[in-house]
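As a representative case, we now present a protein record of this kind.
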Amino acid sequence: MARTRRKNQFERGQATVEFALAVTVLFMVTYGIIDFGRALYAYDLVNTAARIGSRYAIVHGSGCTLSICPATSAAIQTYVLTKVTGVNQSQFSVVTTWSTAPGCSDPNFQGPECIVNVKVSYPFRFVLAFNQTLTLTSTSQMVISQ
């Protein structure tokens, strides 16, 4: 009987160690999946922000009759930041440039047929990868419609 009791005590200790190792791996995989999902969300958000910014710029060209026209770099950045949710907005970088074709280089005249280019970047920080930072960048280019 003493041998059986001794064997069961050692097996219980072994099961505890195996459980600790298995749970550690399970938690690392689970948090890795969550972190990767956050990265995909941020990547999609950066792409969408660039498209939103360029759409705003093409609709608010020099032919627009609203008081907020024509769109400036600051106005485009402000508009994009109002549409971005779920991340640190202060780290978003929105840079807008217009084509250098005749009639397009003057910031007061970004008229039809001019090309606007909106570049958005965001430094994404992974949680589990020892605070590794990945800079996500997207560019959207469209032709001004008005």
Summary: Residues 2-143 form one domain. DSSP finds two helices and three strands in the chain. The mean pLDDT is 83. The radius of gyration is 26 Å.
